[in-house]
Each structure stands twice: as C-alpha cells, then as structure tokens.
Amino acid sequence: MNNPNVRQAVPFFWVSNLERSIRYYVDGLGFEMTNSWINNGKLEWCWLQIGNAALMLQEFRNKVPYANSSEGELGLGVSIYFQCEDAIAIYKEVSKRGIEVARPFVGNRMWVTCLVDPDGYRIMFTSATSEPEETVYFE
Asked: Under 8 Å CB-to-CB from 94, ≥6 apart: which residues?
C-alpha cells in the first residue's frame, strides 16, 4: 500500500467500574475525556486522550439487550505502551497525584514507567535513553 488508510490503533478496555477508571486515567494519569456516549443520563462509553494517544473505556453490563460479561480476570495479559518524550516526567507527575507507579527502569534502550489500572491493565510510558540496560531511576 502506497497510501495507507489506517491512522491510529486505539485500545478498548472493558472495565468493571467506569467512574473509577475515569478517575484513574483523568485525575491520576492526566488523560482528557474528548468523546463520550451518554444513554438515559448514564455515561456508557468514553474516549480518553493524552497527547496523540488514546484509550476507549466501557463498563461491563449484565442486562439484556446489551449483555456482556467477563468470565476471567480483566486486564490479564494486556499491556499498552505509550511512547513519550520523557517517561521519568510521567513517573514524577503521577507519583505526585498519589497513583501507585513502579520506579522507572531501562529496558530495550527505553526508560519504562509501569502502572496497573484498577482492572489490571498494565499501562507503560516509555522514552528512549542511552542509559545502560536495567538501570533503575533514583531521584
């Protein structure tokens, strides 16, 4: 293809509590809600943006006609990597907001800042570095 039509991949997370997840991503990680679907006065779905990256969230429902559910653990085996200019800056900012975040380390020539959202989805912010592999960030 000389002129690809695909512009962006946006992960869609089914979550157990949409309000809790929005607080985590918006208040905790700094995402902005840029689109939403409200049905009968209830927020059903949202698009969250941070820089040029995005996520979609929707809460599981157990009522017909829109029934869906999860038999297993949400987030199991799912990791999303956000490429950014400065992963350590994300670590510092998120830490100040009281969000649990692992100390950054160097892996694959990138600083990696790792978080786990309320449903177990692993969220990684990474940025290129020349630091040696397995270096751990200390302030």
From this structure: 28, 29, 30, 101, 113, 115
**pLDDT: is 57 or 61 the higher one?**
57
pTM of this structure = 0.85
Q: 18 by DSSP, 3-state: which?
A: helix
- 3-state SS of 67-117 is CCCCCCCCCCCCEEEEECCCHHHHHHHHHHCCCCCCCCEEECCEEEEEEEC
Ordered structural domains, the chain, with CATH: 12-63+75-128 (3.10.180.10)
**Percent of the chain surpassing pLDDT 70:** 90
